Amino acid sequence: MEVANTAPASRLERQDGATIAYHRSAGKSPGLIFLGGFRSDMTGTKATALEDYARQRGRAFLRFDYFGHGESSGDFEAGTIGRWAEDAVAVLDALSEGPQVLVGSSMGGWLMLLAALARRDRVAALVGIAAAPDFTQDLMWDRFTPEVRETLRRDGVYREPSDYGEPLAITRRLIEEGREHLLLRGPLGLGCPVRLLHGMADPDVPWELSPQLAQRLESEDVEIHLVKDGDHRLSTPDNLALLADVLDRLFAQLEGA
């Protein structure tokens, strides 16, 4: 396997002066854009594995950090679903050309859907990895104890213990603003091909969410790939091989091969 790009990140300046850090490699179209998860960054296993995948196949690729994530500017606790979705659209507009396949992991699965709704003419297909649309409501607020909800109302932030490192800062603004972007309450008007990968041993985002999303999508070209022993990350060599196979078949379909 080739080594992922280790050059310094480039930067895209937003209108408010914030900067989005990104790595981009040239190649054929349709291109591939990776959207990471909540508090993750573009140096993760899936992001760099996808960069290798794209390079080996001569395909354009882009990975980036949202506002307040990784190498991008901003305070993570000031971020919201709307802000991060705007980052994704800004990257799509400014840093890519032609049709794109968006690959969204966890929260990135929600953001890829929002970006696709905003730029239907640019998005050729979507691939969700443990996609988590509406998670701020369904997987956070609705499951919080009364004590946690009171902490959020009183302090504006709750710091949840995390298996992945330091406590996870969840803000009242994140929850409240997230309600403006909920997608699973009705039909989801996207007609492009969609592929959903989900681990059935995922402790963070229940695998049942992927069939729920599939039912909401208007597209008739939707596949769900369940990995019985798969966790939330789906980043083992076997998981990444499955992702590569799904992408190979998807690109062949898009290119009429």
Structure report:
With 257 residues, this protein is an alpha/beta fold. The chain has a single domain, classed as Rossmann fold, CATH 3.40.50.1820. Helix content is 34%, strand content 25%. It is built from eight helices and ten strands. The protein has helices spanning 45-56, 81-95, 107-118, 135-140, 146-155, 172-178, 209-216, 237-254, and strands at 10-13, 19-25, 28-35, 59-64, 100-105, 123-129, 157-162, 165-171, 194-199, 222-227. The strands form two sheets. It has an eight-stranded mixed β-sheet with strand order 1-2-4-3-5-6-9-10, with helices on both faces. The longest helix is centred in the last third of the chain and has 18 residues, at 237-254. The two termini are 25 Å apart. The mean pLDDT is 96.
